[in-house]
Amino acid sequence: MVRFSDLGIDPGLVRLLASQGITDPFEVQAAAIPSLMKGRDLCCRAPTGSGKTLAFGLPMIERTKPAESKRPTALILTPTRELAEQIRNVLDPLAWESGMKVLSVYGGTSYGKQLKGLDRGAEILVACPGRLIDLLKRKALTLDDIGMVVLDEADRMADMGFMEPVCSIIEKCTSKPQMVLFSATLDRDVAKLVKLYQDDPVRVEIGPKEISMDSMDHKFWKVKPHKKTEIAVKSVRRAGRSIIFCRTRAGVDRLGGEMQLDSIPLSTLHGGLNQRQRDRAMNKFASGRSMVLIATDVAARGIDVEGVNCVIHYDPPDDAKAYKHRSGRTARAGHSGVVISFIKGNEQRIYSRIQNQVGIRKRFTNPQPEDLKKNDFKITKEEPRKTSRRNGNESRTTDKPRRRNRGKSGKGRRGKGVGNGKKYQNSSSKPNKSSNNWNRRKKKRGQRSGSKKRKADARP
């Protein structure tokens, strides 16, 4: 059996992987790492969840040189913020073992932290094309020292219209870097990237060329618009862990609000949320603290969550390719899953075309959520934050906000004991005016000024 050490990986990294429970390389890792360690260009087709991040990440850490300020030496381009953070979280502890830094840059967050990270120097830069173009225009970094470029989910970047920015970024890497391309499909746009930027690449293909529709139970239900939420609630209560896809951000928010009224534990995810909110939503769903994820197509690719039993197309996908990638969130790693499409009267033609393009043939039927397989799902409760100890005494848990004393006369800015009748601990310090004495003096002043005013008014 092949081990990571057999692939030329440093023993320190091998030990760190073992401490994380990673001992044997996946198929894509065993196939890709030897060629990447030799500096060869590589074009790899592999599905999401196959272990691609370590397949390119380990050779990158081994071969990447130290970086200077604003001059990263390795670049990973990804289509979405979620995937960028996912890659950074995997590579950061491994890079730290080798004395390297990993920095992720993407839109939807402030520039400040990213600019500081670039200024301090980071060897591995994980970036979304749009934000990286903005940072290059600001002259916040240069790509002259890049020795290795990875395009992850290249087909998805092409679908999102990133082809032109990606080409522009690659052409700014003047050092002729090693080019590595990972994609779930090798379509026409990906082939164009291979032809333009790769030099005699090694080809690796893992798994089926297309997402298999055979392992999924496809159901096409004719649902009236006002019944869609009710059917969705009944379906997820039977199926358990589920993902529901809506077309718009407003649709996600509206459905989330309606399902919460039925006490469904859920998370919502769309492009209108900031990065912290998106991370919180995904963590909540992935950790089992919510049973349902309601999302736009931003979650259809690049998110690897195990144990999803059901995918619901609440709104129809744009095309057959989107149907495949949405549906591919279930029936993973040899497991089965159900895919349900809600069809309004005027959408039957759309779904007939999608069925023909993906190679399935199913009748449009009335909804029957009670016939779905019953899957039990236990919500993972969030652990309370640890208590802190001060002066040998245990304080209350930190998830409750501490009471602030700012502005109060007893313990505010005026010093201890002021205004509450306590004696001063330091007799040498000058006491401030207590509130009672202060009010009494103000009253006397007002009386004196009032008598003077009356006398002045009495003058002829």
How is this structure best described in words?
The protein has helices at 11-19, 27-37, 52-63, 81-97, 111-120, 129-137, 154-159, 163-171, 188-197, 228-239, 249-260, 275-286, 320-327, 348-358, 435-458, and strands spanning 42-45, 74-77, 102-105, 124-127, 148-151, 178-183, 202-205, 216-222, 242-245, 266-269, 292-295, 310-313, 337-343, 364-365, 387-390, 393-397. It is an alpha/beta fold and 460 residues long. The chain has 2 domains: 4-205, Rossmann fold; 216-371, P-loop containing nucleotide triphosphate hydrolases (Rossmann fold, 3-Layer(aba) Sandwich), CATH 3.40.50. The strands form 3 sheets. It has a 7-stranded parallel beta sheet, with helices on both faces. α2 (27-37) packs parallel to α3 (52-63) and α13 crosses α14 (348-358). The N and C termini lie far apart (114 Å). 35% of the residues are buried. Mean pLDDT is 83; it is low at 386-431 and 451-460.
